């Protein structure tokens, strides 16, 4: 087995999105598509009431991508143009495949107990053949996300498989792994990730040695190629492990849309203007 080395460590940058939502952004959609099939990773972390009222993300469109919301504290109230509505609470996941288009509203709310909002949004690309497909939601309640324990690692498996435990999110084009991994102090975690797949780790609590290199929170690690991820920790560490198969297609990102050509973006904007964006 070949342990994947670290190829890049990204320091998340503060960004403001939606109606004044402060977040920590590690990766954002770019034409260079260097984290193919992953496009964006945002960390919502409102831990201080002086950050003021949370206004959220009022109605906005998406086309050509999947957005994955995973909340640890607080919640996101959600509704969309297809008539879906609901609340993504602590430990819940919403895996939204926009396909040809949805309009939705995402409103983060503080935990009533702690006053904190803590969660992540990952954007996953869709291959050209799926970009104009039917929109689809996989709403996963916290109670149905299985946990697996091995050698001091406790893993909540959202998508992919760990130690014989499979995540509830399935039939995603990128064949993703998406896991919340917690290592107890003085433990070691070795996890196979298929060679050629893109692999990232978002370290959000504690400190760990990834491929022999010490990384403290909060950082996004980009791994080089190999067939396993190796992590050790003396004091404990928690990270999101993200991996998937690249599509190796050209992309043209434009705000909440990611298509393959400029013409497809122009078409999308024309449909928004003339009211034909949402197709039944
Ligand atoms: Mn959105």
Textual characterization of the structure:
This protein is mainly beta. It has a single domain (6-274), classed as Jelly Rolls (Sandwich), CATH 2.60.120.10. 5% of the residues lie in helices and 53% in strands. The chain has one helix at residues 262-274; strands at residues 6-10, 13-17, 21-27, 38-46, 57-62, 65-73, 75-80, 85-88, 93-97, 102-109, 117-125, 136-140, 147-150, 153-159, 161-162, 165-166, 177-183, 187-192, 198-210, 213-216, 219-223, 228-233, 237-244, 252-254, 257-259. Strand 19 and strand 20 (213-216) form a beta hairpin. The protein starts with 5 loop residues before the first strand and ends in a 6-residue tail after the last helix. The mean pLDDT is 94.
The string of secondary-structure elements, in order, is EEEEEEEEEEEEEEEEEEEEEEEEEH
Number of helices: 1
Structural class: mainly beta
What would the CATH topology be? Answer: Jelly Rolls
Q: Return Rg in Å.
A: 18 Å
Largest sheet: 10 strands, antiparallel
Name given to the CATH architecture? Sandwich
Helical proportion, percent range: under 10%
Q: What oligomeric state do the depicted chains represent?
A: single chain
What does this entry show, briefly?
This protein is mainly beta and 280 residues long.
Structural key phrases:
280 residues, mainly beta, Jelly Rolls, ten-stranded antiparallel β-sheet, seven-stranded antiparallel β-sheet, 25 strands, 5% helix, globular, binds manganese (II) ion
């Amino acid at each position: 087995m070949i342990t994947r080395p670290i190829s890049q460590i990204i320091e998340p940058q503060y960004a403001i999105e939606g109606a004044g939502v402060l977040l920590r952004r590690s990766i954002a959609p770019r034409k260079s598509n260097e984290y193919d099939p992953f496009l964006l990773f945002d960390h919502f972390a409102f831990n201080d009431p002086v950050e003021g009222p949370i206004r959220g993300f009022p109605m906005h469109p998406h086309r050509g991508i999947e957005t994955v919301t995973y909340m640890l504290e607080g919640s996101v109230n959600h509704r969309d143009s297809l008539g879906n509505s609901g609340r993504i609470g602590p430990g819940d996941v919403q895996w939204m495949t926009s396909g040809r288009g949805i309009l939705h509203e995402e409103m983060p709310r503080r935990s009533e107990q702690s006053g904190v909002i803590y969660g992540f949004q990952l954007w996953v690309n869709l291959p050209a053949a799926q970009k104009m497909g039917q929109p689809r939601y996989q709403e996963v309640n916290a109670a149905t996300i299985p946990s697996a324990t091995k050698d001091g690692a406790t893993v909540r498996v959202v998508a992919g498989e760990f130690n014989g435990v499979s995540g509830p999110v399935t039939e995603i084009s990128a064949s993703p792994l998406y896991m919340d991994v917690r290592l107890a102090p003085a433990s070691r975690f070795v996890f196979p990730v298929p060679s050629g797949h893109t692999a990232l780790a978002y370290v959000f609590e504690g400190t760990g040695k990834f491929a022999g290199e010490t990384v403290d929170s909060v950082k996004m690690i980009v791994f080089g190629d190999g067939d396993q991820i190796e992590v050790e920790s003396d004091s404990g560490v928690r990270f999101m492990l993200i991996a998937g198969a690249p599509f190796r297609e050209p992309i043209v990102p434009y705000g909440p849309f990611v298509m393959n050509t400029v013409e497809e973006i122009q078409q999308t904007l024309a449909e928004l203007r003339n009211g034909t964006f949402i197709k039944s």
